[in-house]
Batch of 2 targets.
Target 1
Amino acid sequence: MSTAPTPTPPGGIAEPEGRECVQLEVERWRHGTLTRERDLVAQEMPIALVYHGVPHVVMLATPADLEDYAVGFTLSEGLVARPDEIRGVEVVRGDESAEVRITVAWERFSALLDRRRNLTGRSGCGLCGQETVEQAVREVKPVGPGARLSAAELHQAIAQLAGLQPINARTGSVHAAAWIAPGKGIQVVREDVGRHNALDKTIGALVRSGVDPSAGALLLTSRASFELVQKSAAVGVALFAAFSAPTAFAVRLAERAGMTLVAFAREHRHVVYAHPWRLETK
């Protein structure tokens, strides 16, 4: 995997594929007047992630950029340690669902099978499809020095992001995850009905283009929740910013991981909750 970002990874800003939206007939009421119109609604369907023929998890997601999603999820959930341990990804689409078939290095798959056998009969916690609290609330290694941004660069990206969300422009109901390269602005954006899915798709898009996610910062149009910080730290990202509030759980993980955590990142304002030194304000 490359250690430096390319100016614009192939397919960095995703264009709509035609699978992300559904057109519906609706009744719209405005100021006492009722009209019948057509409206676009974001698509959401079950996406099954299957490793070597063994089902792992089913997630509800926007059925676009699924190869990116599979690679990003596999890395951010710690199912492999390095991108080269992902050997293949195949997407099989149906009318109401999709299956993503993933192959990984055999030792990683063996460990995944052992973990599933050892967890038989335990109750589920529901965080990103994990089966136990121990799996879901896993610790991550401390991040490295990572990327630094100026406050001006961050706020330029915040202003730029709305124009790089074609699905949200049509439907108003999806999240986006953007990757910012220092000195170059937003390079990759992915959208999804789930904020964690959008993040995994962005991570996957970077890795599939040979770009190291740790060489830039992540910006999410959501709150800064624990699983987003966890996924970002798992791939070495050291500066994470979110449009909305953080949770205390997420702040504590960012502090332990050495990650710069920014929230309430909106026009002309932001709040830094952990390790502020990577965000230069002068």
Target 2
Amino acid sequence: MWTASWLLALQMTVALEPTTRPKVTAQEVARGRTLFETQCAYCHGADGGGGRGANLARATLRHAPTDDALFRVVNRGIPGTDMPGNAMSARETWQVVAFVRSLGQVKREPLPGDAAGGARVYEAVGCAACHTIRGRGGPLGPDLTDIGARSSPAYIRRSIVDPQAEVPSGFKQVRAVTGEGRRITGVVVNEDTFSIQFRDTGGSLYSYFKEELAELATDRSATMPSFRDRLEPAALDDLVAYLVSLEGTR
């Protein structure tokens, strides 16, 4: 006999196709908000402004240009990313779609700061040593080419002044000592039970069996320093404005 947990697991593996969309009403949007707050807000923020997940408070969503596409993203997730699928019904999925679409209609307050000045701040404080924009920069931090499409201004600001608050997945630090006594620090690229691959501060890639290393330590602390006391408030505003302006290729 099928157990309830087995049936739930089976349900979560069955992707739904978009059905006829119910009429969008205030009640449908309100129900979508409730579902969003329980299922999506942890990554996307309560107002959809982004964080670990993409900024959804936008008129156009890159991965979901149509409502049917958004239905599929909500239901199935996006392979190769941290966006998972879910076990909501078709009706519930449409309710979330209705709420997410409503987010793009909310007028946003203009940001303080000047994006052009922020580009100069970005270069002056050495952000490009670790971060990449359109293929140029260092490999140790997240690619920022489309950071403005992925994260809210508040999340970007918090990442600058308190980078330890939330380290992006895939950027775990590593400190290793080889059998010959060479010390290497960097960021983990891949790791399993027996081996580890990582990239050092100069961008060189290393691969070792763990038993070959005299010492090996990894942790989830951020390699990025805090800029809380390194930037004047106006310069911080400019830097945030610049990063928010980076939306990648549409």
